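PROTEIN–LIGAND DATA SHEET

This sheet pairs a single protein chain with one bound small molecule, NAP, given as SMILES. Inputs appear in the order they were entered. The predicted three-dimensional arrangement of chain and ligand is reported afterwards as a token string under its own label.
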Amino acid sequence: MEFRRLGRSGPRVSEVGLGTWQFGGAWGRLDYETAREVVRAAHEAGVNFFDTAQVYGRGRSEEFLGRAIAELGIRDEVVVATKVPGEWLRYRDVKRALEGSLRRLGLDAVDLYQVHWPACWENIPVSETMRAMEDLVGEGLVRHIGLSNFPVCLMEEAQASLRREEIVSNQLQYSLLVRDVEKELLPRMRELGITLIAWSPLAKGALTGKYTPENLPEFKDVREGDPLFLRENFLRIWELVKALREIGARRGKTPAQVALRWLLEDPLVVVIPGARRPEQVRENAGASGWRLRRKEWELLDRLSRAVEIEWVTY
Ligand SMILES: NC(=O)c1ccc[n+]([C@@H]2O[C@H](COP(=O)([O-])OP(=O)(O)OC[C@H]3O[C@@H](n4cnc5c(N)ncnc54)[C@H](OP(=O)(O)O)[C@@H]3O)[C@@H](O)[C@H]2O)c1
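PREDICTION REPORTED AS:
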């Protein structure tokens, strides 16, 4: 497993982390024992970076992750990231929300505290939220500050509001199928030295090669109604998925490993694929420790640019 620093001053994390949204139940019910085995498999595969959020199952994901880390006795070896929802960004709410997270995670401090999304309906100034975040660092309850789903202007404002700390990361949707971050965010983050933590890096499983246009289940989880999994869109991405399969077959890798590797060829990126079973974690960890050849990277780049997903579905 290879490691990358978050931002200029953050912790060193495995370039493949583990996302734990699926522990919250939105992907279908997942029991604690399975969650613990997923965490164990991740740790054994060299993963040290675990991402959760308060909203994942209203704290359930945080509880499962914290309990698993405690039972496995790995607290000192891992970097734990959680998030405060965009509705709770007033000064007092940020602090109160963190108390709940620490309690559920069973931790004294969170390694990376991220603002899950910017305040949308509440009109809370970014500077107020950042003052709370910085005070939490001062109190020793948060080690590093991160953002999520922040556009360039708000990311810059967040950084400018901080007096002592720096933003180490912005967690954003990024995969071979969703590349909008490349338009504005990624270039600016490169200038500022802010790491991009890629969420849904497997496009919720669409890039793993296990779903085909002939075999598209009727999802009863977060993917229900997701445009990516509508048959007409899935047919559009099929050339790309076939290329992931072919490159994988040539290099002794799986399509999921190739799709994650494509993102990791950018040194500013770390990925946090979700996994519902230990085998998936082990497989995803195998995206680290090798390189795509330039021609392979370019082919995937070209095929992915040619995909035009129809997001407007009604
Ligand atoms: N900040 C945000 O707003 C935000 C939003 C979304 C997600 N996230 C974070 O990003 C993490 C990952 O995103 P995500 O879970 O949405 O999508 P993802 O990582 O792209 O896809 C995860 C799903 O793909 C399937 N899968 C994973 N590894 C596989 C493998 N090796 N082979 C075959 N199938 C595999 C699994 O579902 P099946 O087996 O059922 O197909 C799994 O639940 C989340 O856990 C969360 O931590 C953050």
